[in-house]
Write a structure and sequence with these properties.
The complex is a heterodimer. Chain A is mostly helical. Chain A has a domain of 220 residues. Chain A is 77% helix and 1% strand. Chain A has a two-stranded antiparallel ribbon. In chain A, strand 1 and strand 2 form a beta hairpin. The mean pLDDT of chain A is 87. Chain B is mainly alpha-helical. Chain B has one domain: Four Helix Bundle (Hemerythrin (Met), subunit A) (Up-down Bundle). In chain B, 78% of the residues lie in helices and 4% in strands. Chain B has 6 helices and 2 strands; from the N terminus they run ααααββαα. The longest helix of chain B has 27 residues. About 4% of the residues of chain B have low confidence. The interface between A and B is large, with 52 and 39 residues.
Amino acid sequence: MFLFIFVALPLITASFMLIAGRFSRKLLPDFLANLCFFLLLCASIAISRLWPGAGQYSHVLKWFNTNLNIAVVLDGLSLLMIFTVSLVALSTGLFSINYMNRYGSKSLFYAILLVLVASMNAIVLTADLFTMYIFIESAGIASYGLVSLGGTKYSTEGAFKYLVLSAIASSFILLGIAGVFVSTGTTGIKEIAGSGFFSKFSVILFLGGFSLKCALVPFHAWMPDAYTAAPAVLPAISSGVFVKVAGIYAMARVFFNMLPFNAEVSSVMVYLGIISIIAGAFLALGQARLRRMLAYSSISQVGYIILGIGLGTPLGIIGGLLHLFNHSVFKALLFLNAGAVEYAAGTDDSLKLGGLGKNMPFTSTANIVGLLSAAGVPPLNGFWSKLIIVIALLQVKMFLYAFVAIFISVLTLWYLLLIQRRVFFGKVREGLQNTREVPFWMNFSMVGLGLVCVWAGVSFAPVILKWILPAANVLIEGIRTSLSNFVIGG
Amino acid sequence: MDVILLAGVIIFAAFAVLLKDMLKAVISLMISSIMLGIVFFKLHAPYAGVFEISVVAGLIMVLFIMTISLIGSDADVKEPAVPVAVFIVLFLIFSVVIMLRIFCLPQVSHQLMSGEQMRIGEVLWICRTFDMVGQISVIFAGVFVLLAVVSARRRNGK
């Protein structure tokens, strides 16, 4: 019952949000939503403390003496995702207290954000493929809503593009599920794994669908437009966690714990990963708008995660999952920074900005932490995950890929430092002399995420032992089962 | 009665294609897929029926309605009077048929629940409860997003 709280609490809070908005336009929605996110974060930490660290937990709820089949499953991987979702949700929620004042009804915004968080938690906790699909759709609908909140022609265009491409991804996933259901007669992940089902057709459909959801090249077209047009909190939570949950987590769950993981799937994931790393970084180079540049950078960083996980070696999986957590934190921070710059200066076009660091010291410092972490500079968190991925590549003798991973990391440092210099350093641009630091909650949120980047970097060993290793073990166990079935089956 | 259901599936699918008003076309598709779901259930394929109702009648409808609101084609569309009248009459008749069929549906043997006899509501509520929560979540998302789009348009004076 306790685990279902992660889905039920945000949904219940969302249902009260419109009523709350009638009584108080700002204060009550701000308080209720952030209280909910805070409770979810506390609950995820409490579970990690109480959780013995192995096995799965299924719950069957009772409703008026009737057993309801809500099978909620918790293992190391879902625990890591729940924690990450809760952390980023709280950060964006706190940031929105001041930031979303400019975007109309706050109660509606928080209601959509809460539905998005509930859906992401459900994707992570469900043990059923079809249920996962329904919540992916629910989260998708909430995301289109957040994009369209901008209310401009561009935000509508971005939302529409996102909706159309996402619908194509969903069709792929649904067809894949149909194929699995026709062959096995079930949509339960554990039952499908037990049946030993494997079909190349379903694998291709799932790969296409999930790659579109996590914007891997060449399925990335929706991301830059959607992220540029939306209020900054959407890219922060979408790039921070939604892409990871609906794309990477779902992909890992399907290919490691449901279908047998084999060399062909591994190769495709590695190719998609490396292409995304290269293309995303080079596309980010020429961008002047902060959020557009960060969107392309996200594509590149997601490539690192897929590359690590796709290798299928224990070290690769650990590196990939660590980078998943790290990227969630530093990319959410960078997008919130971009939002703060736009809030203060009225634009996020770096060509029209300059010298903001003098008037915005907190935003500038938080941005430096975020960019150094994204570029993989020690001792910040991004460094360790990239290092582990590079070592994992060297371990399997993929020297060229390791070189590319290091080279693109340097390139990332270059273009992010260029933006930092253009926006925050140098002389204050004309018309920006009166720019002020953003309000308290926006700073609080950015500084908090910056501190998490530093904490996860400095104490990376406990982070790996407590959060990453149990998650990696779930995927490694999946590969082990696939291999033993292959050996027994001949 | 099965013939009526199948006729309804075809008639409302045709309405979905022929009607110019997007919203009415979407409602037609929804009715068509609900009846198709009932047909699936009668043919002892409860999961196919539940998935049909969940995906096509629930999820995709929300997506269509959202798309209509995003592209702004919910403005007045001049529909000839005859199709509208036929649509309304048939809509009312088949709504009654659907209600009757849902309440009078026979119990089907559910192979995934060890041969237990179940009604369509029980399959939805007991076997696929988490999907129902998902549908509630989809409806919430759809309603909030529509309100947000309308509010954003009003704010920008469109």
